[in-house]
């Protein structure tokens, strides 16, 4: 759309206007109008109404047209010149609509079942607009006031959901500015980092002539306390945010010790004990054991009570990463799957996954609110000591009121409403697992423990050859099958009708060989069994079109 790119080019603009530092009256008024309510922008409002009112229909107006190649789209985004003069708003809205919004991914469609961030309740776009308009900053009271109180209330609700302490406890801590029951952050990555940050600092407090790790740093801390290093232990399904965590915290990536899993994707306790033994021999202090409650790849949940026992024996911190799975605590029927989570020192939950809040809403919870002493900061001009500024306990600085989004979902859906959504999603996953098991040419790879499962396409002749054929042929078949499933997933995304994600896992039933699987997360309540059935049929058709299908046929015939 060259007309637009031309608008961006200062060479084409009125040269005389380029060198005036003081705008003329008309130009200045036009700028002021950008900040004055009700002054135009009708085209954008129209677009907003049509998108926010019904994002699925909006995103699918291109339905059944294949997705454009990214290289093709990139051509509209090559200029690095900031437009010197404002472009006409009608032109801009046209660019936005035709070149950008026409090509976004319909993640809220019931046919997009591949990711953890899905559809949102319909009140949220309006609330998002209100939040943007009011632009409150939760870092400090002066720019958020009542929203600080509301955020603390929401964090209290989350704390109660996990730890279920009594009224006296919440009376004491909920609005106690010197500590926090939990903090909001942009997502699970920062929640995990915050939890491990507090854990690391608490591990090496001030002692004798050592002023504490937070002041003197890790190197001196290790010398003072006489360790060769620190380690965080998690199963091999641990989220990669933990790798960033050990890196940022200065422990080094090798400090993340990955423990093998059993055939259900749960951490192997024997392997964990062996790893702990190894660390002891090398004089490396296990800083934290991390349990996963809903792994990103297969949805598996570690035996949290057993991990809590071991952490207690080792006197190390116990963290539970329930970024995705934590929402299922809202279900009375399934919360028993998380037994032991209430013994965790810290817990990560993402409200922007199955709590149906837009992205940017992670929560880290502290069993003991005093743990936040390990990370509390203050700066005189902004987050003051003895104030209730939420920024004293957060890694981030300026931060929007995402807590209001969660507050509204809790009130407008209710605990019971959430429970119904969670229960229905898990039951749908089980139904889909049954459906996959009934197919001759699909194989269920991981059973749904929550609403997530993995499977793959495998023609029955190939499956038979993999089980009974000569060893020499198996590796080749396995590789081809991985290639075929990668190809199916890519073709499916490009076709633009439905979507699953894919990952590679090491299933016990296939000798832990890296296996490409299709991954489905059934969080969208509008996804029906019929949609899933049609999707299997679509994948079957795509498989037949894949060049790898023919190769596989040749290999087994
Ligand atoms: C999604 C996820 C994370 C990371 O959360 P972000 O919000 O993407 O930063 C961490 N751990 C688990 C288990 C997750 O599923």
From TrEMBL:
<keyword id="KW-0663">Pyridoxal phosphate</keyword>
<dbReference type="InterPro" id="IPR015422">
    <property type="entry name" value="PyrdxlP-dep_Trfase_small"/>
</dbReference>
<dbReference type="InterPro" id="IPR022517">
    <property type="entry name" value="Asp_decarboxylase_pyridox"/>
</dbReference>
<protein>
    <submittedName>
        <fullName>Glutamate decarboxylase</fullName>
    </submittedName>
</protein>
<keyword id="KW-0456">Lyase</keyword>
<dbReference type="GO" id="GO:0005737">
    <property type="term" value="C:cytoplasm"/>
</dbReference>
<dbReference type="GO" id="GO:0019752">
    <property type="term" value="P:carboxylic acid metabolic process"/>
</dbReference>
<dbReference type="GO" id="GO:0016831">
    <property type="term" value="F:carboxy-lyase activity"/>
</dbReference>
<dbReference type="GO" id="GO:0030170">
    <property type="term" value="F:pyridoxal phosphate binding"/>
</dbReference>
<comment type="similarity">
    <text>Belongs to the group II decarboxylase family.</text>
</comment>
<dbReference type="InterPro" id="IPR015424">
    <property type="entry name" value="PyrdxlP-dep_Trfase"/>
</dbReference>
<dbReference type="Pfam" id="PF00282">
    <property type="entry name" value="Pyridoxal_deC"/>
</dbReference>
<dbReference type="InterPro" id="IPR002129">
    <property type="entry name" value="PyrdxlP-dep_de-COase"/>
</dbReference>
<dbReference type="InterPro" id="IPR015421">
    <property type="entry name" value="PyrdxlP-dep_Trfase_major"/>
</dbReference>
<feature type="modified residue" description="N6-(pyridoxal phosphate)lysine">
    <location>
        <position position="353"/>
    </location>
</feature>
<keyword id="KW-0210">Decarboxylase</keyword>
């Amino acid at each position: 759309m060259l007309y637009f790119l031309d608008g961006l080019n200062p060479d084409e603009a009125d040269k005389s206007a380029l060198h005036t530092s003081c705008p003329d009256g008309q130009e200045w008024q036009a700028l002021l109008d950008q900040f004055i309510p009700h002054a135009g922008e009708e085209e954008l409002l129209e677009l907003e109404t049509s998108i926010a009112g019904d994002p699925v229909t909006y995103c699918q107006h291109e339905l059944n047209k294949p997705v454009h190649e990214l290289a093709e789209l990139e051509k509209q985004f090559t200029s690095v010149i900031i437009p010197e003069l404002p472009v006409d708003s009608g032109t801009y809205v046209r660019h936005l609509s035709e070149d950008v919004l026409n090509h976004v991914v319909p993640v809220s469609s019931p046919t997009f079942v591949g990711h953890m961030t899905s559809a949102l309740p319909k009140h949220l776009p309006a609330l998002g607009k209100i939040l943007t308009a009011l632009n409150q900053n939760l870092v400090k009271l002066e720019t958020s006031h009542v929203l600080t109180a509301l955020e603390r209330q929401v964090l209290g609700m989350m704390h109660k959901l996990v730890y279920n302490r009594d009224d006296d406890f919440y009376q004491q801590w909920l609005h106690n500015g010197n500590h926090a029951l939990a903090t909001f952050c942009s997502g699970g990555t920062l929640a995990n980092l915050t939890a491990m940050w507090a854990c690391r600092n608490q591990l090496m407090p001030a002692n004798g002539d050592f002023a504490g790790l937070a002041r003197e740093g890790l190197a001196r801390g290790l010398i003072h306390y006489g360790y060769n290093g620190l380690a965080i232990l998690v199963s091999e399904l641990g989220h990669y945010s933990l790798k960033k965590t050990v890196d940022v915290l200065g422990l080094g990536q090798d400090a993340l010790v990955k423990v093998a899993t059993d055939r259900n994707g749960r951490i192997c306790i024997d392997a964990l004990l062996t790893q702990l033994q190894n660390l002891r021999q090398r004089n490396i202090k296990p800083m934290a054991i991390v349990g996963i409650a809903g792994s990103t790849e297969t949805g598996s949940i570690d035996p949290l009570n057993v991990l809590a026992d071991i952490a207690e024996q080792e006197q190390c911190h116990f963290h539970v990463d329930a970024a995705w799975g934590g929402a299922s605590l809202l279900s009375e029927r399934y919360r028993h799957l998380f037994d032991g989570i209430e013994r965790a020192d810290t817990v990560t939950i993402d409200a922007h996954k199955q709590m149906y809040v837009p992205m940017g809403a992670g929560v880290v919870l502290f069993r003991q609110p005093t743990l936040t002493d390990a990370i509390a900061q203050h700066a005189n001009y902004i987050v003051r000591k003895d104030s209730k500024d939420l920024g004293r306990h957060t890694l981030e600085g300026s931060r929007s009121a995402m807590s209001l989004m969660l507050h509204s979902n809790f009130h407008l859906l209710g605990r019971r409403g959430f429970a119904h959504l969670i229960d229905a999603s898990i039951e749908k996953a089980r139904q889909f697992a049954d459906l996959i098991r009934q197919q001759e040419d699909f194989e269920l790879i991981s059973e749904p423990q929550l609403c997530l499962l993995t499977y793959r396409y495998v023609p029955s002749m190939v499956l038979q050859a993999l089980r009974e054929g000569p060893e020499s042929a198996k590796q080749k078949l396995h590789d081809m099958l991985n290639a075929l499933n990668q190809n199916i997933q890519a073709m499916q995304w490009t076709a633009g009708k439905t979507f699953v994600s894919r990952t590679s896992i090491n299933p016990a039933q296939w000798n832990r060989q890296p296996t490409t699987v299709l991954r489905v997360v059934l969080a969208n309540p509008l996804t029906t069994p019929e949609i899933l059935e049609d999707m299997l049929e679509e994948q079957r058709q795509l498989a037949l079109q894949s060049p790898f299908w023919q190769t596989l046929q040749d290999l087994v015939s």
